[in-house]
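I would like you to sit down with the record closing this message with an eye to the fold:
=====
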Amino acid sequence: MKILRFYILYRLQIIIALLALGVLSYFFLDLVTAWLCFTFAIISTILYFMMGTMRIVQEAVQEGDVDRAILYMEKIKFPRLLFKPIRSGYYMLQSNLSMATNDLDKAEANIRKSLKIKSKIVGDMEGTNLMQLGFIELKKGNSKQARLHLLEAVKAGIPDKESLAAVYLQLSSIEAGRIQYKMAKQYFKKAKDLKPKSEEVVNQIKSFEKQITRMPG
């Protein structure tokens, strides 16, 4: 894994070294070695532009090391050249990192870029993107747009029940704010029926349940 991380981090320098070695091999060694160096340099160049450092960015995010993730993200100089699914993931992670620093405008701009990317593979991410956009709009105090995008997220499909439960809880809260108590209770029930396990969502359910029981209708 350390070798792979080294290769991804220093891919550009490796490409330059391979090209230099290829030229030297062409003139002083043999054509086979030269063409092997050129071939590996071409493959590495394609990977450099189309995949960037996203592999190790995701590793850093999974390990909870935000600073390292940001450092690796900054090494991607041409995000528009990334392979579509990877580009969508890049903008989504940029949005996540911006939310972590409370830069909501940047977070929204990046998640909208992710949403614009059309790909059969990316199609599975549409619900997650819409969910994130809805959460960003809630933080910005735009509950009307948040409600629309969260409903679109549910329709598009959210891959895990923890996130889906969180969406239903937010929809329940929004409907309660609109004095639509019947809808608020329905969304709350949907969230509870999913039986989420994450501590954050479970605590939200416990907290909101007290308000739900006091609602008329």
Remarks:
- Residues 31-50 form the longest helix (20 residues).
